[in-house]
């Protein structure tokens, strides 16, 4: 009899454990108690609650302008919206206006939008994401020449950042956050790696290091699709291995490790590269990319499927809460 009871107990324990590892919908916040037996890494009990509904609304507001392709009305209008939105959360907002030359010779009129949340804090970290939309759906089988909604590849990272900026008004962290909304990331072609991240190249080359001195940076790229896979990307491991470790350990503590997978993946030319190589701020990329999944990026990548239908609040919450928890474990230096 005893043996049977013991067997039943073990079986139900195994089931519970399996559920915890696979059920992403329940892997946020509610399950934190189950981590109490592990050594307290960064409990971040004082961190505010990330609101995925609010992040979703910020994403939708961008997508509603239409594709935010440089040199278009929608791009212009969205820049104004993002600047105004960021100003609701900090008065320290700068819009960097510039002209850059795309791979095909087109001159792109760009706007990088930069805000510092809690600029009075001595220690700062950088959060960044691109806000422009890809002008083509080159990975699609139809309408390849038409621009994409870019709900995930662009708007999602900005939505998460705006929500973090809002949360940090409700509760003060110990550190300041430089928020960089990067333009002209996605006007690139595979044959020419330098053709990507034009806005960030422009920002990094003209960086005011006294104003934007950040200890390290975190890039968000495609952080809203269901079943997102965030792996440890090669350039991030090369330039900022400690930050990769810090974020993936935080995901374990925050109960979001089903998204932040403990595997390495190949190098991606993305906005973190000029920040590492030109601005010399150690910066990692949280990007939905997993080589074991075929083309690496999600099925929606550079297709018309990258629209509001694929924006998933559980994924937004996993990324947003992990970052908020991380921010609230950082201690200021003065
Ligand atoms: C390359 O395909 C070389 N880089 C992809 C960077 C990217 C585009 N991220 C989002 N869209
Ligand atoms: Zn893209």
> Which kinds of small molecule does this entry bind, naming each only once?
N-[2-(1H-imidazol-4-yl)ethyl]acetamide, zinc ion
The ordered string of helix (H) and strand (E) elements is HHHEEEHEHEEHHEHEH
How many separate helices? 9
Shape: globular
Question: Would you count the extended β strands for me?
Answer: 8
Radius of gyration: 20 Å
Give the helix proportion (percent range).
25-40%
Assembly state here?
A: single chain
- Uncertain residue ranges: 1-43
Strand content: 15-25%
Structural class: alpha/beta
How far apart are the termini?
63 Å
Largest beta sheet: strand ordering: 1-2-4-3-5-8
pLDDT average, as an integer? Answer: 89
- How does the major sheet shape up? 6 strands, mixed
